[in-house]
Design a protein that fits this description.
Elements lengths: L27 H9 L3 H5 L7 H9 L1 E2 L4 E4 L2 E3 L3 H7 L17 H12 L3 H9 L5 E3 H8 L11 H15 L9 E3 L17 H16 L10 H24 L6 E5 L2 E5 L1
Antiparallel strand pairs: 1-2, 2-3, 4-5, 6-7
Pfam families: PMD (PF10536)
Organism: Acorus gramineus (Dwarf sweet flag)
Protein name: Aminotransferase-like plant mobile domain-containing protein
Length: 267
Amino acid sequence: MEWQGGSIPALSSTDQNHKGWNVEGESFTFMNKVKQSGLWPLVEYNFMTLNSPIITAMVERWHLKTNSFYFPFGEMTITLNDVTQIVGIPVMGKAIYGSTSMDIDEAAELVKECLNLSMTEIREELRLHNGCALKLKWLRGKLANKSSLLPEQHIDFVVRGYLLFVLGCTIFSDKTGSTVPTSYLRYLVDVQNTHTFGWEAVALAHLYRQLGIASRANCKQISGYGCTSIFLSSVLHQVLHTLTRVLELIDGYDVVIFQGCRRIQLR
């Protein structure tokens, strides 16, 4: 982290626990479609507790130019294989790319097509975010627990809204913790083919970018919510494993490492 003297305060990250969309009230068809989308693992990670000390410790070691962590024993980074092992969303597939900025008319048409809501309501919501995003609370309020009340052919509208909600709570969470880019609906139009996109690749690219931003001296917060904590905790686990093996070679050498709130004694 680029800073000049003094202690570094722990980075904050918006807690999404209060934004939960309870799927217990959704229909059987809804649940099947969500599980077949390839994004179900994100649902399970949606309410993980954040570990700010771990996140901050890892960000301090991040180098923007190489997208890797610098440690005394060498460099480490997060790879696509790590994402596969940790999260389990699709890595192979069609590319997800392009700007998240959208014209309000284009965004309104996309939301109307995907979610089948009132155009008046859609435009009112989009105007609050320059046509580029939807509020997570708004999505939940409009679509949560509606699938059990809809005919079979309309359930996809709720599924798309839920998947967008999950993306906004996890891998594409921003610093506000309250909105999600409208543009990601482009990849949810055909619910049956959502799993054909390379979500892991774009998740990793997004994480690299957020780590780069968070490594700046004036940054106090990091985006990415649960997945950020998952990835960085995994890397730290590998670091501790490496240190343990190194210290085992040093006879009689004791060191205490603090992992989160747990004290670990290594010999």
